[in-house]
Automatic annotation (TrEMBL):
Domain GST C-terminal, residue spans: 85-208
EC number assigned by the record: 2.5.1.18
GO biological process: glutathione metabolic process; xenobiotic metabolic process
SUPFAM superfamilies xrefs: GST C-terminal domain-like, Thioredoxin-like
Catalytic reactions of this protein: RX + glutathione = an S-substituted glutathione + a halide anion + H(+)
Source species, domain of life: Eukaryota
Protein name: Glutathione S-transferase
Gene Ontology cellular component terms for the protein in this record: cytosol; extracellular exosome
InterPro entries referenced in this protein's UniProt entry, alphabetically: Glutathione-S-Trfase_C-like, Glutathione-S-Trfase_C_sf, Glutathione_S-Trfase, Glutathione_S-Trfase_N, GST_alpha, GST_C, GST_superfamily, Thioredoxin-like_sf
Record-stated family: Belongs to the GST superfamily. Alpha family.
UniProt keyword terms in alphabetical order: Transferase
């Protein structure tokens, strides 16, 4: 039996992509069991694998974990990507929640009715350039260190860089005025495990997935 984490989700980014990114950045190999039909999902529900009847679900270390934040926190703790003490973890959580706020807006954009899409896109651009991106730029500027917390790679950096890729997909010009964020994106993207994940043919899901 393989000791690799097994990810149960659709063949899409959705709420699993942050988990894929975090495992990849940790250098942890993982398997995916794609849900390809309603029957596949019903099977997981009926056999008791889904505590709250929903995915993502990750089989890891003898557990079947659901709820995205719980899964991410476990992975971050397991692979030492969650700070050295309570204060660092609080900052990591705070930054991660900020990433999630903007990320949720971007993730839900394709589900938006066509007649509302331009309005939503304008709102995302405004929130990105006037709130979230300046906030993260200022964090990096305040301590002049390579990473957001403790000058050490954490899940907050990985989630933020994933978000920066999505922001660039929407509009590459949005990052133009944020040199420290662009530097963080380059730095994290060049880490060997992340660089491998960004290559064609990896388990990363592409735009539209």
């Amino acid at each position: 039996m393989s000791g690799k984490p097994k990810l149960h989700y659709f063949d899409a980014r959705g709420r699993m992509e942050a988990i894929r990114w975090l495992l990849a950045a940790a250098g942890a190999e993982f398997e995916e069991k794609l849900i390809e039909s309603s029957e596949d999902l019903d099977k997981l529900r009926y056999d008791g694998s889904l505590v709250f009847q929903q995915v993502p679900m990750v089989e890891i270390d003898g557990m079947k974990l659901v709820q995205t934040r719980a899964i991410l926190n476990y992975i971050a703790t397991k692979y030492d990507l969650y700070g050295k003490d309570m204060k660092e973890r609080a900052l990591i959580d705070m930054y991660t929640e900020g990433v999630a706020d903007l990320g949720e807006m971007i993730m839900l954009l394709p589900l938006c009715p066509p007649d509302q899409k331009n309005t939503k896109l304008t709102l995302i651009r405004e929130r990105a350039t006037n709130c979230y991106l300046p906030a993260f730029e200022n964090v990096l500027k305040s301590h002049r260190q390579d990473y957001l917390v403790g000058n050490k790679l954490s899940k907050a950096d990985i989630h933020l860089v994933e978000l920066l890729y999505y922001v660039e997909e929407l509009d590459p010009s949005l990052l133009a005025n944020f040199p420290l964020l662009k530097g963080l994106k380059t730095r994290v993207s060049n880490l060997p495990a992340v660089k491998k994940f960004l290559q064609p043919g990896s388990q990363r899901k592409l735009p539209g997935a």
